[in-house]
Fold this sequence. Notes:
single chain, about 150 residues, globular
Amino acid sequence: MSHTARLPLFTLAPAPLKAMIGLSHAAKQSSLGPQLVELVNLRVSQVNGCGVCVDMHWRDLVKQGRDPRHLNSVAGWRESPFFDARERAALAWADAVNALPARDDTDAAWPALREQFSDTEIAELGYVIAVIRGWNVINLSLRNQIPVTPAPGM
């Protein structure tokens, strides 16, 4: 893969960019709480191989006080002792939804999700997964790179 971005994404198509940023902010403001949102963002970005998003969401979780060792185990969350039942249900759902349509594991993840989350929270989690997956697709397809020095707010 090339280490040069194909297009200057953040200077083009301002209306859709603003809408994506708005959806990202709305997802963070949901009843799920910013740490759970960022944990899901980190996991989906890991699975999709989006280095820009992995870097950004890992840094955000560290700023929120999460232990870096715990965050390093997100890739192997099923074997990690660092996540509670709610986080595990959200991570399992994120993995299952992110795998669609190539694979459908949502039936297996659904019972734990229903046990841990309200209907509204499940809907909010769907938006969290959708928006991070969208960012992953945009960043990967345009070959956006992890910035050596992150921009303010990122």
